[in-house]
Amino acid sequence: MTLRPHLTWALAAVLLVGCGGETAEPAGSADPAPAAGASDAATPAETATSGAAETAESDAPAQPPADPDLVSPPGFHAAVFHEGVGAGARHLVVRDNGDVLVALRSGSLVALRDADGDGRAERSERRTLPITTGLALHDGHLYFSDDVSVHRLPLGDALLPAGEPELVVGGFPQQGSHAAKTLAFDAAGNLYVNVGAPSNACQAESRTPGSPGQQPCPQLERQAAIWKFPAGATGLDQSDGERYVTGTRNVIAMDWHAGAGALYFAMHGRDQLNTLWPEYFDDEDNAEMPAEEFHRAEAGADYGWPYTFYDPRSGRRLMAPEYGGDGEQTAPEGRYREPLHAFPAHWAPNDLAFYDGGMFPQRYRGGAFIAWRGSWNRAPLPQAGYRVTFLPFADGAPAGAPEDFLTGFMGADEIAQPSAARYRPMGLAVGPDGALFVGETESGRIWRVSY
What is the topology classification, in CATH, of domain 63-84+175-450? Predict the structure, then answer.
């Protein structure tokens, strides 16, 4: 099933309000009414069972309280798992034993363990590694990346992986922007690596008003792409892989959907339409364009950067002004992929996790959670994003409007700059029990969301 991408956020908000967006008591907290004709007296067996359950509950650690800063749908419980591993926390993963591993942009790996099962991490260890953002678990190893390489370490019983990192693939270009190498694996074990564009729009003079785009854009040869590398291989160079897709400006949020057998991603759109091309775009245009595009990755496909961008207001792919666009000229039909959904501009998608757990209600199974960090480029208009959304899925495609899942990260109804946000969502991972772990990057706080 293919959906048109022109769903507006206003429609999503209406649907969300209709479903209820306030935090409520967890499901099952209200006592059910007795069936008609049922006796109030308990049998000896019921009394024994009830007493055993009460004893077990009294022996179990108390669940930490929900964080009052965050708002979640009814029945969900977002509690603080760790107060903060440090500024610059990026992606995170959760092992089968429940240990949480977090990448810090400063070059550290942090490992957390909830030793007593009370929903909070008591143990914390860290070590220096060639790491900035990307993390993935595969085949008994932890894979991690810095800006120019991917390494791995074997996992054992210790909280913190030990040993010397083994190079998986290196030789990626040095670049000053969009350098994070995010990671994903398919069912066969092939590795996918984001290689972001090193510029905003491939201009001859970067971020200079009126400067035309380079034609063709030389950055597309090795960057602005997702690269694929063979399963299990180590000691590779970028040239040993294949450019799986092209025209992706920067993909921090990507994940493999096991049910669909495909890779999906949410892409950061370009900046500065108003300041680079004021003859065509004003501040409001810039705040509302281009869309943050959500796509299925198809081998060999072109997703449009730097030649085009997607306008979520009109539902059209437009030519970029660096390449002759004027805010109205559309891109050649069929040359570039249309998004499965067009999210609002400058929300900054920084992680994607398909829900494969068993804790949440059935409607969440196989759906997409996306963490939105927020971006400076909406200025001078108010900031937006700063939330975790849920996108229902069916038959390998979105099956409804996106919904706010966690909000309250900004700490205010309106902020003017990203630095004013209390939290900025950055990392997502599903735990072995089906809980969703959410990390943020200002102080490195981590929440565990249960149902």
Answer: Neuraminidase (2.120.10)
